[in-house]
Amino acid sequence: MTLQEPIHDIVVAPAAHWWPLAPGWYALGLLSIAVLVTLLLMVLRRYYRMRARRLALCQLQQQTPSRITDITLLLKQAALAYHSHAAMVAWWDFLADQLPAKLRQHYQPLLNTLAEVSYQPPQQQQAWLEPYHAFAQVWLRQALPPQQHQNRELHHD
After folding, report:
1. pLDDT by residue for the chain (157 residues), tens digit each?
2. What's the burial of 85, exposed, middle or buried (CB within 10 Å: 0-12/13-18/19+)?
3. Which of 65, 78, 117, 121 is the most exposed place for a label (fewest CB within 10 A)?
């Protein structure tokens, strides 16, 4: 090379392409997909687990019960979706036991009265229908579905 030769221009390297990605991006993509699938499965599982509760609440809002047994039947059907029949033998105690302590204390007098009134003629039950209807809404929202630790305790007894 002599000093009189022209200087060549500097050749710039081409810009780096975004593809193929570095291995870390693949790992991040797989992790993101796994998280999204897991969240979707959790949402679907909760949706299906709450189905009996949703149906019972919808039925309760649509019907106008004429007897205490109408509401009791609806509550028993909803409870059977989550509990064994053996757990519900003492029905009025079962209803109270599924509630948090504060609500249990509040509704215990009503449940004690309903245990007696439910065997009376329908005319004598009329005064208790509205409080029982309100209790049923609270019970369906608070007691169903059972918490995991409640569910294990009921099935081990």
Report:
1. 567 788 888 899 888 888 888 899 999 999 999 999 999 999 999 999 999 999 999 999 998 888 999 999 999 999 999 999 999 999 999 999 999 999 999 999 999 999 999 899 989 999 999 999 999 999 999 999 988 655 545 554 4
2. exposed
3. 121
Could you tell me the residue range of the domain that residue 150 belongs to?
A: 51-156
Instruction: Answer whether 135's CB lies under 8 Å from 107's CB.
Output: yes
Q: What whole-number distance in Å separates Cα of residue 90 and Cα of residue 112?
A: 12
Q: What is the CA radius of gyration of the chain?
A: 32
pTM, two decimal places: 0.75
